[in-house]
Amino acid sequence: MKTLTILGLETSCDETAAAIVRGRPPGPGAILSNIVFSQNEAHAPYGGVVPEIASRAHLEILDGEIERALSEANLAWNDIDAVAATAGPGLIGGVMVGLTTAKALALGLTKPLIAVNHLAGHALTARLTAGVAFPFLLLLVSGGHCQLLAVADVDDYRLYGATMDDAVGEAFDKTAKILGLPYPGGPNVEARARHGNAKAYALPRPLLGRDGMDFSFSGLKTAVRQLASQGGLNVDDACASFQAAVIDILRDRTQQALVKFRADFPENTRPSLVVAGGVAANQAIGSALKDLAQRHGFEISVPPPAYCTDNAAMIAWAGLERFALGKRDPLDVSPRARWPLHASGEGNHSGQRQNGA
Ligand code: KG4
Ligand code: ZN
Q1: Which position among 157, 167, 228, 240 has the lowest Cβ density within 10 Å, counted as fewest Cβ atoms?
Q2: Per-residue pLDDT for 197 more than 80?
């Protein structure tokens, strides 16, 4: 198979990103350029992402980033085989900016357009960075999602479990806010947890020990809020205690998924657990899951932190995988605020307008 060169755009949340990757499935691929502008500063005063500010910023920044992505990769437009962009899920204004830009480029350059599910971008990153083979077990932990899935192919995702309330990154961000730490919360909570005592505060671990692979984090967040309202809190200890509770929950649910994956894919003798999404950048979570995976005879693959948090290289790669299968999307493909991964098969890429997206 021919080596492909794909431009990817990512604008679904508060990172404006453009990247060019080159390679062929199953990877690994070469990241020729990877431009990411994080709008953290613009949103920090509000303690979270303000959609209107995000879309405006994407609009202002994206064009320049695309030019930089091209020049840093030392490429001309002719070297690009297709343009990929996140088509959802995410904040709809932002998704529209990236997808519309990709459509304009595709039209102007007569290049194919590939509409990419943002979550597929996270899911397939381990193929871009490490060439992980299908099928693999995926723990997707980001600001908007917390799911366990079997990834059987580029477009074949089988949901094992998902959060019933908050996403795990959201729990980190809300905990940070309660504790007075700056946005985004995850990296700050992790940094403070390093100096804290994880046993200092007894926090709940919802669903722990119960059958199933679903998650729940809202009770944990509420417990942190109650603790904080009592005053006199040691922030380092609170962060460490919170993170330890998260790790226990992730470990418990993932363990059951490892067992189910074994049963579902018995022919896969050395399977992989892939941890993806922004929260996968957390080193303490990564090493806890590594122990767990090893005990169950799984390889573990956690992409480098820069490719765990939102970026466009993962979108370019997911586009590359779809393109390699001969898939293209029409110029009227719709942006979607919601787009579950386990339904991201053919039907959703056919260009039909989706209502209630
Ligand atoms: O994947 P991502 O960049 O955006 C979404 O698609 O949601 O994930 C962002 C989330 C945020 O909630 C952020 O706090 C969390 O990932 N995060 C972390 C860490 N780095 C980022 N959470 C815990 N520890 C970290 N080191
Ligand atoms: Zn993401």
Answers
A1: 228
A2: yes
Single-letter amino acid, residue 203:
L
Task: Please tell me the number of the ligand nearest to residue 183's CA.
Answer: 1
- Residues with C-beta less than 6 Å from any ligand 1 atom: 13, 142-144, 169-170, 172-173, 184-187, 190, 277-279, 281-282, 309-310
* 118 shares its domain with 108: yes
Residue-number span of the structural domain to which 330 is assigned: 4-127+307-343
How do residues 59-69 score in pLDDT, each as one tens digit? 999 999 999 99
Contacts of 269 (CB under 8 A, 6+ apart): none
Instruction: Give the per-residue pLDDT at 343.
Output: 67
pTM: predicted TM-score of the whole model, two decimal places: 0.92
Residue in 36, 194, 247, 309 to alter for ligand 1 test, most ligand atoms within 8 A of Cβ:
309
In a shared domain, residues 157 and 281: yes
Rounded CA separation 138/277 (Å): 10
- Ligand 1: centre distance to CA 109 (Å): 35
Ligand 2 midpoint to CA 172 (Å) = 15
- Ligand whose nearest atom lies closest to the CA of 278: 1
DSSP state of 356: T
pLDDT in tens, 5-53: 999 999 999 899 999 999 999 999 999 999 999 888 888 888 778 888 8
Q: What is the CATH number of the domain that holds 176?
A: 3.30.420.40
259 to each of 148, 263, 285, 300, 309, how far by Cα in Å? 12, 6, 20, 15, 28
